[in-house]
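Supplementary notes for students who missed Thursday's class. We covered one full example, reproduced here. Read the sequence, then the structure, then the short commentary at the end.
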Amino acid sequence: MPRGGKRSGAGRPNGTGNIIQRTTALKQVEPEIRIIRESSAGQAVTAAMILAAVDENGLWNQLLMATSTIPTKEGPIEVPDWRTRLNALQYLTDRRDGKPRQAMELTGSGGGPIQLVHSVPRPARLDGNS
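Structure (token representation):
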């Protein structure tokens, strides 16, 4: 007979959730995080505080000029990382200009126009009187 509820020993062990991504992200911004922790004892860390501790323009320039290293027989070479550059550029232009409207087109059966009914016919009475 099936049992519901919590099972002992089931699930991910405590403290292991997304540990790889969290430590990788912290290594990249560790100096900035340290500055924020020292200056904001007891208060919540906000996005404005984090952005105040870094050079935003410099980071956007790094994203817009991102490169990838590709190993070859002659040695590693750096090539433009077009996907990262495009994503950063799209994000910035969407923030500046707003996202474009999504085009939508509705058609009736067979691709023709949709017929609108402006009045509803009155049903006939069962006793024959109108």
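Commentary. The mean pLDDT is 76. Helices lie at 19-39, 47-52, 56-64, 82-97. If anything here is unclear, bring it to office hours.
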